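The instructor's notes for this session suggest beginning with a concrete chain rather than abstract definitions. Hand out the sequence below and ask the class to guess, before any prediction is shown, which regions might be ordered.
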Amino acid sequence: MTGLSGKRVLITGGGTGTGADLARGFHTAGAEVVITGRRAEPLEAVAARLPGTRCVTADVTDEASVAAMFAAAGPVDVVIANAGASTSAPFQRTELADWNAMLAVNLTGVFLTLREGLRQFTGWGRLISVASTAGLKGYAYVAPYAAAKHGVVGLTRALALEVARKPVTVNALCPGFLDTEMTERSIANIMDKTGKSHDEALAALTATNPQRRLVQPAEVTAAALWLCGPGSDGMNGQAIAIAGGEV
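After discussion, reveal the predicted structure:
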C-alpha cells in the first residue's frame, strides 16, 4: 500500500500503544513518518523496525517544545495528536495538580500540536486527534480526563469550521478502552483498589463495549488512514467513535 507516498506524517506519543501502531500503518501506506514523545528509548525502538522513520523528543504540554518539534520534523502533511495520559480518583479526592496535569497533556497538548501543525500547512493537510469515548460520554472516577477529552471534541468541531474552505480537515477519533499499555495500567489500578482479579477487572472494562472486547490499536490506525485517503474530503469536524456501538 503506497497511497500516502510523498506525504509526511507527524505522530505524537508515537513510542507506544496506539501511536506505535499508527506509525507502522502510515509507514506501510508509504508515508514518511516522524514520531515524537518525551522518552527517546521507546521512539527509537519503534523507528528501528520502520526504515526511514525519524524520532523527535518533545513535550506537547510545552509551547516552545512543540514549535521545536515541528521545526525538527520539517513540513508535514498529516498531524496526529495522539499523546495522552490518564489517572483515576473519586472526584472529591481529585487534587488540583491532577486536574491540571490531565488538561495539560490531553487538551492543551492537542491544542498546541494542532495549532502548530495548521500554521505550517501550505496546502492539503489532515489534522487528527486521538480522543476517546470519554469525550462523548462520562465515566466515573476520571472526571479530569473526560473533561479534557470533551474539550478535544469541542476544539475539533470549532476548528473544522475555520478551515472548511481550505483543503484541510480536522477530525477526532474516539476509541473505547484500547488493548494498550494504558488500559493495562487501568486494570492494575482496578485490581489494587477493588481486589478484583485481572480477568474480573478486564471484564469490567470490556462490559462498556457492546461487543464485549477491547478495541485494537489497528482499528484506530485504519480509521486514521481512511481520513487521509481518497473520498475523505467531506469528513470534517467529526468525533468518530470506535467502540463497538457504545455511544
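Then share the key points. The chain has one domain: 8-178+216-242. The chain has a mean pLDDT of 94.
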